Amino acid sequence: MKKDQSRIIREQATRSATREHSVPLYLTSSFIFESAEQGRAIFAEEEEGMVYSRYANPNTTEFIKRVSTLEGAESGLAFASGMAAVFASFAAFIESGDHIVSSRAIFGSTHQLLTQVFPKWGVTHTYVNTADIDAWENAIQANTKILFLESPSNPGLELYDLEKLGELKKKYPQIIFAIDNCFATPYLQKPLKYGFDLSIHSATKYMDGQGRVLGGVIVGNQELINKLMFFIRHTGPAMSPFNAWILSKSLETLGLRMDRHCSNALALAQALETHAEIENVIYPFLPSHPQYELAKKQMKAGGGIVTFEVKGGKDRAFRFIDELEMIRYTSNLGDSRSIATHPATTTHAKLTDNERESLGIKPGTIRLSVGLEDKEDIIEDILQALESTK
Ligand SMILES: *Cc1c(COP(=O)(O)O)cnc(C)c1O
């Protein structure tokens, strides 16, 4: 089997003596050694074998293999949540005195790590708020250990040029280049092929795709994954086998689902672009997006998030959300059900007006995670909510 989709469906945990067709759920904390000698050999890493589910479990191992296939990665690790993965991707490598370069538009909790947690350990950071590659290079210091970014960003859907960043990596091989690839998913964007070292995901989002379980995953080159493995084995942010079982099965349909998320999102973005009650629409695969060419170059499609600004500021945005009939307001994204959120008063509420402005978040900004419903129904719900709040 050469093609990704076949491998993702067919490469599964070894069949048990029961000869099941679909992989069972391995709810077990530990694994039996057939003999004292086998116990010794497995601990000495002379023989391969599972020991304890904090280290590895057939369900998490299968999930990791599938994500690695999708990303074209050598290896990976699974985590209890996306934030456990993001935290480990820093904490496993940084030392007191180190410096991190990061894009400014990052997930709220990642921003808290950089500004509240790591300074306690003497780790500093510089934010870069532009795609200009010179600005990224200028932010690098002699003590920079990690360069981190999200592309597309949340909720402004700004992109960073992965190819150019990959060239920068060649100039600074000692710096770990890490990307939170959650918004794009490995189906739409494969950062490792440009030279990134680590690709990180909140599996809670599109990988689950149905708003059920939390999970995180990091994939990348074997050497860095080994270092991470030491860190997580002894700090314990392991993914539960149950969540791995759910997530691994979900990966079988990731590509199909993403195609639909993207075509629905594009249809919505096009429908809103010329609407009189809309100030502006941001979607990477709309030709009006300032980085449309870059989006086409590095993403297979535009993703499932559409960000738009309703006319009339916060008051209108609130009334708009309350008037939605099918679409719900909840703090998640990447679900089969469409979700609306108001970033200025939720995910980005703690920022100053200026900070929000620089991230493109206005009082009237709505982030829509476009689901898998029929596109006509999604568009209709939004149009009726706009109409009834004029
Ligand atoms: C949700 C999210 C996270 C955090 O993931 P959890 O699974 O909620 O811990 C990190 N980065 C991005 C871009 C996210 O959307």
From TrEMBL:
<dbReference type="InterPro" id="IPR000277">
    <property type="entry name" value="Cys/Met-Metab_PyrdxlP-dep_enz"/>
</dbReference>
<comment type="similarity">
    <text>Belongs to the trans-sulfuration enzymes family. MetZ subfamily.</text>
</comment>
<dbReference type="GO" id="GO:0005737">
    <property type="term" value="C:cytoplasm"/>
</dbReference>
<dbReference type="InterPro" id="IPR015422">
    <property type="entry name" value="PyrdxlP-dep_Trfase_small"/>
</dbReference>
<dbReference type="InterPro" id="IPR054542">
    <property type="entry name" value="Cys_met_metab_PP"/>
</dbReference>
<protein>
    <recommendedName>
        <fullName>O-succinylhomoserine sulfhydrylase</fullName>
        <ecNumber>2.5.1.-</ecNumber>
    </recommendedName>
</protein>
<dbReference type="GO" id="GO:0019346">
    <property type="term" value="P:transsulfuration"/>
</dbReference>
<comment type="pathway">
    <text>Amino-acid biosynthesis; L-methionine biosynthesis via de novo pathway; L-homocysteine from O-succinyl-L-homoserine: step 1/1.</text>
</comment>
<keyword id="KW-0663">Pyridoxal phosphate</keyword>
<dbReference type="Pfam" id="PF01053">
    <property type="entry name" value="Cys_Met_Meta_PP"/>
</dbReference>
<dbReference type="GO" id="GO:0030170">
    <property type="term" value="F:pyridoxal phosphate binding"/>
</dbReference>
<dbReference type="InterPro" id="IPR015421">
    <property type="entry name" value="PyrdxlP-dep_Trfase_major"/>
</dbReference>
<comment type="subunit">
    <text>Homotetramer.</text>
</comment>
<dbReference type="GO" id="GO:0071268">
    <property type="term" value="P:homocysteine biosynthetic process"/>
</dbReference>
<dbReference type="InterPro" id="IPR015424">
    <property type="entry name" value="PyrdxlP-dep_Trfase"/>
</dbReference>
<dbReference type="GO" id="GO:0016765">
    <property type="term" value="F:transferase activity, transferring alkyl or aryl (other than methyl) groups"/>
</dbReference>
<dbReference type="GO" id="GO:0016846">
    <property type="term" value="F:carbon-sulfur lyase activity"/>
</dbReference>
<dbReference type="InterPro" id="IPR006234">
    <property type="entry name" value="O-succ-hSer_sulfhydrylase"/>
</dbReference>
<dbReference type="GO" id="GO:0071266">
    <property type="term" value="P:'de novo' L-methionine biosynthetic process"/>
</dbReference>
<keyword id="KW-0486">Methionine biosynthesis</keyword>
<keyword id="KW-0028">Amino-acid biosynthesis</keyword>
<comment type="function">
    <text>Catalyzes the formation of L-homocysteine from O-succinyl-L-homoserine (OSHS) and hydrogen sulfide.</text>
</comment>
<feature type="modified residue" description="N6-(pyridoxal phosphate)lysine">
    <location>
        <position position="205"/>
    </location>
</feature>
<keyword id="KW-0808">Transferase</keyword>
